[in-house]
Write a structure and sequence with these properties.
Length: 721
């Protein structure tokens, strides 16, 4: 590609005179571009190449975003997706960036895509395509600004969980932290706006140094995975077919290259914009691309125990990776805090670009209220009202998170959909103009005879990643409802429990070996339990599945089939003990040998009796208080890691909070991470070694009482010691 100046200026004399000539030339080029586009210069041109490079580089935030966003790619191919898919996206993004840069050099305006479309489209379609690209771009940038503030806030919550396992993770906490990040971004974009170019230069240095600050301890301290796992193992955890899974996994890499065109929307504040805007975008893709691929490789080598990482109570797998590597909460907090700081810095650029794009669109009367939004403040020389609207939209989107994080994330998906759509429209029209041979007023940055080929590559790449950005990270995506289970559901629940606990050494102790007699025993015990007033069964049903259920008689044998209205995919049994009732004097803690008829041999019965007697004795000793007991929770293996366990536990936690009671449970090692995430702490780890059931054990856990205290009109909340 060729970068050339459209105006040739001969200079001679001292270096100072030459610099003055260069500045005059840049100023003249900017003035000429504004006149040619029919725009008046209303903002100050504060940004040179280096500050603009810092602006776009930290806004892309590629290596930092590798850590919070790698999960989608990992469950859709592992290293095969994250490394080779990343290279595919890197090359595709270079082609897209080159195409966008060419148009930015032709028309260096803050309007960006919608302005280019108006000039590139056939006259009869210009207004429609310009309006369409303006709105999809505006929605994408507003969603992008909200995603930055949300990401910074919620990672802070993950650190709180790491350092205080009793911290009760609430969505509204995340929204308040979002507001804090937004407030900092607004302060920098208004009061400190004149210092922002210098700040961006400093952040660029921190961006590069921070990469090594995190990479070196991670690689040095973490247990190393094999090269085969990193480069040649296809991890399939999403439910898609392998080939389709790889394309879905591209989302983790393509999202890392979204946002470089933020420089376009700052064009009217950049010196020599027709050259420096394209340069800053292109150099950003090169720099961030190199740092990103190194971060992916380091992360895969350092991932360690995959199960503990994916089920981390912090909600962020990378925090668990840091902790597994350093084995230090302080070290993990320091590494994560650096990431948080850089992500917060990225929101400075996102908020600035989103507000400038909205301002330019309003200046061309593309949005309601354009008369106000298009005003430029004379004191700060920035579109202050546009900045205010961006802040209001950001804060309003944060309120959605209080009701549903899923709904909030769905809205944030507009970031990729909106920006990819704007790229497609503009690049598609540029391809058309080249193919029909219409004259194109190229600027200083042009790809020459390679332009058409690069445009086609960019269009194809953008179309692929945009289509697959709409795919969910994993399937099946189910419509699940929560309701109370009754004894009529037990013919579904008993086999489900055996499938869910398969491989757990405690399964035969409680339920016996899977057989008709064990089915009958478990069903009878559960039905007996429902006669107690404190017993509550909760079930989650997949409404899209309508299975045939095996009906069983009292002996556990199949007695017929029945078509169910929905498939039960998870269940939980809660014991709600509003008062403490001590056991009757002389009442045995454990079962008799006769009660263990579901086991095959006398040795098994004696060993199970020993385990269950000690198990119940420990429970009686601990639970001498009113409390809620999560006696059982299980999820269909095909539906695990979809949040069902969290939903079932949250129901019990909410009831406990309303009743101001603690919660108790006994967990296996597989469920420990979930319960920690829900605010439960270890109280005791019990292990038993018997001939029939070696390696059995449970983790007894407790969640503290949540107390509410009212002071007149002010309410505070805390956990009891």
């Amino acid at each position: 590609m060729n970068v050339e100046n459209t105006t040739s200026v001969q200079t001679s004399g001292s270096p100072v005179e030459e610099m003055e000539h260069e500045h005059s030339q840049a100023k003249s080029q900017d003035e000429a571009d504004m006149i040619r586009m029919g725009k008046a210069q209303q903002t100050k041109r504060n940004f040179g190449l280096i500050p603009m490079l810092g602006f776009t580089t930290i806004m892309l935030c590629s290596w930092e975003s590798v850590y919070p966003f790698f999960l989608t790619g990992f469950i859709n191919g592992g290293g095969i997706s994250l490394i080779y898919g990343y290279i595919f996206c890197w090359l595709g993004s270079l082609a897209t960036c080159a195409s966008i840069s060419e148009m930015a050099s032709m028309y260096p305006t803050s309007g960006g895509q919608y302005h280019w479309v108006a000039l590139l489209a056939p006259p009869q379609y210009a207004n429609f395509f310009s309006w369409l690209s303006g709105w999809v771009s505006a929605l994408g940038w507003q969603a992008g600004a909200a995603s930055g503030t949300f990401l910074g806030g919620t990672i802070i919550q993950g650190l709180l969980v790491l350092n205080d396992p009793t911290y009760n993770y609430k969505r509204w906490h995340g929204t308040l932290l979002l507001y804090a990040v937004l407030a900092i971004s607004l302060f920098v974009n208004t009061i400190l706006i004149s210092f922002m170019p210098y700040l961006e230069g400093f952040i660029l240095v921190l961006h590069i140094l921070g990469f090594f600050v995190i990479l070196i301890p991670l690689v040095h301290l973490a247990p190393m995975s094999s090269a085969k796992f990193v480069f040649a193992t296809f991890v399939q955890e999403s439910g898609y077919a392998d080939g389709l899974s790889w394309f879905v996994g591209l989302t983790a890499s393509s999202v890392l290259f979204i946002g470089y065109d933020g420089a376009v929307h700052m064009a009217e504040e950049v010196k020599n914009a027709a050259v420096n805007v394209p340069r800053s975008m292109f150099f950003t893709i090169f720099l961030n691309g190199a740092l990103g691929i190194a971060s992916f490789i380091a992360l895969l080598f350092s991932i360690g125990d995959v199960d503990s990482v994916l089920s981390t109570p912090t909600g962020w797998p990378f925090i668990q990776i840091f902790y597994n590597a350093t084995n230090s909460k302080a070290g993990t907090t320091a590494m994560t805090s650096l990431l948080i700081a850089l992500i917060v810095f990225a929101t400075f650029s996102y908020v600035a670009s989103a507000s400038r794009q909205l301002w330019a669109f309003a200046r061309d009367r593309g949005v309601p209220g354009w008369q106000v939004i298009s005003i430029v403040d004379k004191r700060f020389h920035i579109p202050l009202y546009s900045l205010g609207v961006t802040a209001i939209i950001n804060a309003s989107l944060g309120l959605i998170n209080i009701g549903s994080t899923t709904a909030f994330n769905a809205i944030l998906s507009l970031l990729s959909a909106g920006l990819f759509s704007s790229y497609l429209i503009t690049i598609g029209l540029l391809i058309r103009k080249r193919l029909v041979g219409e004259p194109i007023p190229f600027g200083p940055w042009t790809m020459g005879r390679f332009g058409l080929h690069i445009n086609i590559i960019a269009f194809t790449y953008t179309l692929i990643v945009m289509v697959f950005s709409f795919f969910p990270p994993a399937v099946p995506v189910t419509a699940v409802i929560l309701s109370r289970a009754t004894p009529s559901d037990f013919d579904q629940l008993v086999p489900l429990a055996f499938r869910s606990f398969a491989g757990d050494p405690m399964l035969p102790v409680f339920f016996g070996h899977e057989s008709p007699s064990s089915y009958a025993h478990v069903k009878k015990e559960w039905i007996t339990g429902t006669h107690e007033p404190n017993d509550f069964w909760l079930k989650a049903e997949d409404l899209d599945a309508v299975p045939d259920i095996d009906l069983r008689d009292d002996a556990g044998e199949r007695a017929g089939k029945e078509r169910s209205k929905a498939k039960i995919v998870a269940a939980c049994n809660w014991k709600i003990n509003c008062t403490y009732v001590p056991p009757k004097e002389g009442e045995p803690a454990g079962p008799s040998l006769e009660d263990l008829s579901y086991l095959d041999t006398k040795q098994e019965k004696e060993d199970a009796q020993h385990i269950l007697t000690d198990y119940m004795t420990r429970r009686r000793s601990d639970c001498q208080e009113p409390h809620l007991l999560c006696s059982l929770l299980f999820v269909d293996p095909d539906y695990q890691r979809q949040g069902l366990g969290t939903i079932l536990m949250q129901w019990g936690n909410d009831v406990a909070d309303q009743m101001m009671l603690p919660c108790w449970l006994e967990s296996s090692s597989r469920g420990e991470a979930l319960y920690r995430k829900m605010g439960y702490q270890d109280k005791e780890r019990a292990k038993w070694e018997t001939r029939s059931f070696p390696g059995t054990g449970v983790i007894r856990m407790r969640r503290d009482i949540m107390v509410e205290k009212w002071h007149m009109e002010k309410k505070t909340r805390w956990k009891s010691p």
